[in-house]
UniProtKB/TrEMBL annotation:
Keyword set includes Transferase: no
Keyword terms, alphabetized: Cytoplasm, Repeat, tRNA processing, WD repeat
Similarity comment: family membership: Belongs to the WD repeat WDR6 family.
Gene3D superfamilies: YVTN repeat-like/Quinoprotein amine dehydrogenase
SUPFAM superfamilies listed in its UniProt record: WD40 repeat-like (SSF50978)
Location(s) in or outside the cell: Cytoplasm
GO cellular component: cytoplasm
This protein's name: (rape) hypothetical protein
Highest taxon of the lineage: Eukaryota
Main location: cytoplasm
Gene source species: Brassica napus (Rape)
Biological process according to GO: tRNA processing
Length: 207
């Protein structure tokens, strides 16, 4: 029997993501731009942006490669420059954290709104999975100059590290005396002195 020596050519390519929605966050725009918030949905390695009044998908952004989005946190304050409004947006997934500038631009007619993402920084890969992040202000600055200069990052080994956004370096790392793996963590506060941490452990405890 003659052998078929014909070589087959394979052209693998990435198909659409068919998994779960892994994160949700409301995005509150300036009131005069849009009184109803938008919705940010983590879907695979993408962020999907929805307009809530119509339920329409406005934009999709590829934020990671091969890493699922687990959470998004906005700095909460937009800075205006002409017809553009900007705020910082942190996206995290697994051991990766990225900081973006979320840019909202008004059309010439004033009714049309466009939204874009600009990468500001990709943090070095962390040793453990990230469960939550929280923007913090530098307590050394005056009230007029205060901005979200620091980023607290809560990890699955029950530790918290603080990243200096302006200097692009890790300035603090604290390990909890309760050395155990977590299922979840939440951070709350506006500065290092007011930061509060709640950790959900694998032993059905909150500490």
């Amino acid at each position: 029997m003659a052998k078929d020596n014909t070589r087959r050519t394979w052209n693998p390519h990435a198909g659409p993501y068919l998994g779960e929605v892994s994160s949700l966050a409301f995005l509150s725009l300036p009131q005069h731009v849009c009184p109803i918030p938008y919705l940010l949905a983590g879907f695979g390695s993408e962020i999907l942006l929805y307009e809530l009044t119509s339920g329409e998908l406005i934009r999709s952004f590829q934020v990671f490669e091969g890493v699922r989005v687990h959470g998004t946190v906005c700095s909460g304050s937009f800075v205006r420059s002409g017809d553009k409004y900007k705020c910082k947006l942190v996206v995290f997934g697994e051991k990766k954290v990225k900081i973006f500038a979320l840019v909202v631009e008004l059309g010439s007619s004033g009714g049309e709104v466009s939204v874009g993402l600009e990468v500001l920084e990709s943090l070095p890969r962390l040793s453990n999975w990230v469960f939550d992040v929280c923007f913090l202000k530098d307590s050394c600055e005056s009230l007029e100059e205060k901005e979200d200069k620091l980023l607290a990052i809560g990890c699955s080994d029950n530790s918290v590290c603080v990243w200096d956004v302006k200097e692009s370096r890790m300035v603090l790392e604290v390990q909890s005396p309760e050395r155990c793996l977590l299922y979840t963590m939440r951070l709350w506060g506006s500065s290092i002195s007011t930061l509060r941490i709640a950790s959900g452990t694998i032993f059905n405890e909150v500490c």
